Amino acid sequence: MAEPSWIIHITLLSIILLSHPPIQTAQTLNTTTYTFGPFYRDSPDFDKFRFLGDAGGMSAGALQITQDSRNSAEYLVNKSGRVMFTERFRLYNPKKTRPTTTNTSTMLVASFNTTFDINIYRTTGTVPGEGIAFIIAPDLSKPPLASYGGYLGLTNSTTDGDPSNQIIAIELDTGKQSYDPVRGDHVGLDINSVVSNATASLADFNIEIAPVNATNHTVWINYDGISRRLFVYMAKQFAPKPTKPLLVADVDLSKHVNQYSHFGFAASTGNDYELNCVLGWNLTVEVLPEERGLSGWRLSVVVVASAVVVGVVVGVGFMLLKKRRLGREDMQYILGKLKSLPGMPREFRFVELKRATNNFDGKNKLGEGGFGIVYKGVLEKEKVEVAVKKFSREKLKGKDDFLAELTIINRLRHKHLVRLVGWCHKNGMLLLVYDFMPNGSLDAHLYGEGDPLPWSRRYTVLADVASALTYLHDEYDQRVLHRDLKASNILLDSHFNARLGDFGLARALDNEKTSYMEAEGCFAGTPGYIAPECFHTQKATCESDVFGFGAVILEVVCGRRPYDVFPGGFKYLADWVWTLYREGRILEAVDKKLEGEYSAEDAERLLLLGLACSHPIAAERPKTQAIAQIIYRSVPPPAVPRIKPAFIWPMVGSLSIDSGSYCSGTTTTRRSSSSNCVWPTIEGQAGLGEISMV
Ligand SMILES: *[C@@H]1O[C@H](CO)[C@@H](O)[C@H](O)[C@H]1NC(C)=O
Ligand SMILES: *[C@@H]1O[C@H](CO)[C@@H](O)[C@H](O)[C@H]1NC(C)=O
Ligand SMILES: *[C@@H]1O[C@H](CO)[C@@H](O)[C@H](O)[C@H]1NC(C)=O
Ligand SMILES: *[C@@H]1O[C@H](CO)[C@@H](O)[C@H](O)[C@H]1NC(C)=O
Ligand SMILES: *[C@@H]1O[C@H](CO)[C@@H](O)[C@H](O)[C@H]1NC(C)=O
Ligand SMILES: *[C@@H]1O[C@H](CO)[C@@H](O)[C@H](O)[C@H]1NC(C)=O
Ligand SMILES: *[C@@H]1O[C@H](CO)[C@@H](O)[C@H](O)[C@H]1NC(C)=O
Ligand SMILES: *[C@@H]1O[C@H](CO)[C@@H](O)[C@H](O)[C@H]1NC(C)=O
Ligand SMILES: *[C@@H]1O[C@H](CO)[C@@H](O)[C@H](O)[C@H]1NC(C)=O
Known about the structure:
Elements: H1 5-19, E1 31-36, E2 49-53, E3 57-59, E4 62-64, E5 80-85, E6 89-90, E7 92-99, E8 105-109, E9 112-121, E10 131-137, E11 168-173, E12 186-191, E13 198-201, E14 216-224, E15 229-236, E16 247-250, H2 253-256, E17 260-268, E18 275-286, H3 296-324, H4 328-339, E19 346-347, H5 350-356, E20 365-369, E21 372-379, E22 384-391, H6 398-411, E23 420-426, E24 429-435, H7 442-447, H8 455-475, E25 480-481, E26 490-492, E27 498-500, E28 507-508, H9 517-520, H10 534-537, H11 542-558, H12 573-582, H13 600-613, H14 624-631, H15 656-659
Parallel strand pairs: 19-23
Antiparallel strand pairs: 1-18, 2-5, 3-4, 4-18, 5-17, 6-17, 7-8, 9-14, 9-18, 10-11, 10-17, 11-12, 12-13, 14-15, 15-16, 20-21, 21-22, 22-24, 23-24, 25-28, 26-27
């Protein structure tokens, strides 16, 4: 059927109307203001920040841009972290202008003002390093690898100077590098590089960022979007704002940063270290009108035109559906598809997949689960191996699960998540196509016939999954719960890199309230992977994902399934390991198939972490980021009570289940009351031991 030409005309009309820049905008823009701090673990602001890389979380009133770890210098040197405000700001709009006093109108660029208090602390007798920066970054991603030392958590030797960084930073540098043009402490404007575009020596202003006697400072940064000029001021905390700026620099945000960017802080340590803390932060940003804020007739015409277009598309869809005699559910499906159209992966023709899998031959079956059967296939044209998941029709919920999986996984991008290649829909039959993972699933390697998975592989598999989980919980724009973490959902590529797969049960947390899954309970999961509170709350949380991952950790180290028969009559692996731990022989839990070929230190780290994640009380489990840091060996393993605590219901304390759930966080719990950012008086376990659950 040829489309009537008037459809095309209306479509073009609406495109023209939508893309034509309005002639002028209001001269005064509204602003939005945020006031943060002091920062505590249980403050309602906690959720508004992402703690990335070696950032240490919120504790004792401060944001720790690099962690404050008291145990030893080992955890303080060569670190880089970022703490980013999750809110995204539109910083300019190329389609809009504002008139200026000089009679020329310029592109609309947002002005902003920010003030923050910092405490950069060094231990007596040491040299401080390296520095802290206020940054504008395009996303909530981690500081790059090896961005410690002089790179301030901004760039590394590969990415420094690359315009695609889209980073602007105001650095407060305590470590002198060869490229730093001024003596001692200085402030600098950095554009995509730690080699500053403009600098000023703080000595000229009688300021030492990290003096021997701890001093808090206040920094003011004002940016004027009209003159495109930046002003930086600094003084001791509680002193009035100086009249003379330290640094004045011309910088056009619209030339360097992403149109939508995030504000936050980055910091690093090198061989010399310091605590990099922010004690309070105020931010005021001009609000640029969004395109949909079109006014008057233009808006109504666009609405009418768009409505007509949508109506026509839906109508055509209806006719097609009627012809093929498909059900109402399929209609919903089509609409869902229309909604999520941008960025959709490839749509396959059913025959392509049929041919690829040799008509879904049982011999090509890779596995079953998450509401469907998975087949191996080879795409004829591309000669590429894929995994094709066919949703079973008998399951009533198949379509919703398909949509959920499609919409979530389609938007996720992470090297440790299985990649979605495409999808297919035919006669109510739904299929998803994934990258094929030549080394199959983790459980096959733990329990299969083949050679046992060597220790180093086991360790990296867990590190990979921890990084995927951190991404889902804390780094992706929207918080995503996997809800079905288990060894059979962890797949291994040709290099034995692990990828988390099967998003059949995954949910974006924001959507969960309206999700039909609510009524369905936690998950039709496998015993041993389900957190005890799930039986009561019927609700998945970050903590229940952590519990599932804890079961996987123990499984990988012990080579035993989480729910089985264990010596002493235990039914759960965690209970057995906990007993061995109490009796001081935890390493006896390590997989015998390894024949002693493993690092005892790492095995103990993982076993303790696995137990901590298996804590019966959800709030006591380590947070996702802390888990990754422990596996990366950047913080020591958690202290675990000798005797497994009892499961208590109703849950004690304020639990994230009620408060909308946070997963981020670090090695400190809200019990931490000792003062960070002031060098620890108690050495030893006091600092990181705070993860303990005693
Ligand atoms: C500023 O905010 C007020 C109140 O929310 C609103 O009425 C007004 O339209 C806004 N102005 C601009 C330019 O966005
Ligand atoms: C820190 O990094 C520097 C430079 O890369 C290196 O020389 C030094 O050994 C590192 N220190 C530690 C403790 O890793
Ligand atoms: C602005 O432009 C108008 C006409 O284009 C001119 O008369 C006026 O002098 C200009 N004002 C300034 C401040 O340049
Ligand atoms: C920032 O501060 C300056 C000076 O105090 C003020 O003139 C300006 O309006 C402020 N801008 C914003 C966006 O708050
Ligand atoms: C932020 O603003 C509040 C209210 O004006 C003020 O009390 C506080 O000192 C400010 N904090 C900083 C870090 O400027
Ligand atoms: C710099 O960071 C990028 C991105 O994280 C990474 O791919 C690259 O390997 C890093 N370079 C170095 C020298 O570590
Ligand atoms: C300053 O900024 C520009 C980008 O506008 C960049 O190309 C240049 O290399 C930067 N560095 C220095 C030291 O000026
Ligand atoms: C640091 O503080 C102590 C005690 O207040 C004082 O005696 C000393 O002079 C101060 N040192 C410096 C370098 O300001
Ligand atoms: C710096 O700020 C922290 C947190 O507000 C406070 O505990 C500490 O006493 C301050 N230090 C100084 C030297 O004022």
